[in-house]
């Protein structure tokens, strides 16, 4: 997996290529070459590419892996304090706890804003059961609340609903 150091090195090489294209474009204008406007476009593209690589060198692209966590799907995210993930109906309470911890780590972002002084992000986990053919019922299995103030949160509040696990098919 690429690291931020790799992207910083790519940024340097892309910056050098951008300067080379800019110098070539200036030379093309001085010598009135027919491809001078194409070189301006290429230089502009290289500027955008270099800026994107630089942004990737600032932000880590890693996801946390919590042992015991299972695959989940993000169902709802208001971009602020409320998210919902979906899991398999065959999940166990211990796997749900690990999955909620992983989701809390992966869904945290500095850009999330607390509303009305609420500085907590709530992630609810649900699954879908089918008690009868043609009927689907969402079942909320648990939730986790974490702070939006910092990436590391040792005081996450995890709630697992054991009575809801009794509704799941065996």
Characteristics of this structure?
40% helix, single chain, 170 residues, elongated, five-stranded mixed sheet
Commentary on this structure:
This protein has 170 residues and is an alpha+beta fold. It is 40% helix and 21% strand. It has helices spanning 4-30, 36-58, 93-106, 162-165; strands at 73-77, 82-86, 120-129, 137-147, 157-160. Strands 1-2-3-4-5 form a 5-stranded mixed beta sheet. The longest helix has 27 residues, at 4-30. The relative contact order is 0.12.
From N to C, what is the helix and strand string? HHEEHEEEH
Number of domains: 2
Overall number of strands: 5
Largest sheet: 5 strands, mixed
Summarize model confidence as the mean pLDDT: 89
Strand content: 15-25%
By DSSP (H or I, 4+ residues per run), the number of helices equals: 4
Share of helix, binned: 40-55%
């Amino acid at each position: 997996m690429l690291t931020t150091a790799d992207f910083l090195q790519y940024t340097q090489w892309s910056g050098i290529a951008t300067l080379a294209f800019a110098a070539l474009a200036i030379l093309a204008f001085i010598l009135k070459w027919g491809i001078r406007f194409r070189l301006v476009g290429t230089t502009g593209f290289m500027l955008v590419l270099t800026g994107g690589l630089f942004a990737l060198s600032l932000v880590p692209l890693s996801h946390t892996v919590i042992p015991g966590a299972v695959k989940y799907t993000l169902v709802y995210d208001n971009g602020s304090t409320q998210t919902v993930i979906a899991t398999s109906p065959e999940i166990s309470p211990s796997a749900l706890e690990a999955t909620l911890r992983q989701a809390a780590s992966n869904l945290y972002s500095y850009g999330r804003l607390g509303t009305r002084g609420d500085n907590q992000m709530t992630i609810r986990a649900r699954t879908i059961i089918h008690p009868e053919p043609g009927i689907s019922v969402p079942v909320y299995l648990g939730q986790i609340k974490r702070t939006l103030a910092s990436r590391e949160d040792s005081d996450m509040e995890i709630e697992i609903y054991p009575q809801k696990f009794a509704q799941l098919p065996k």
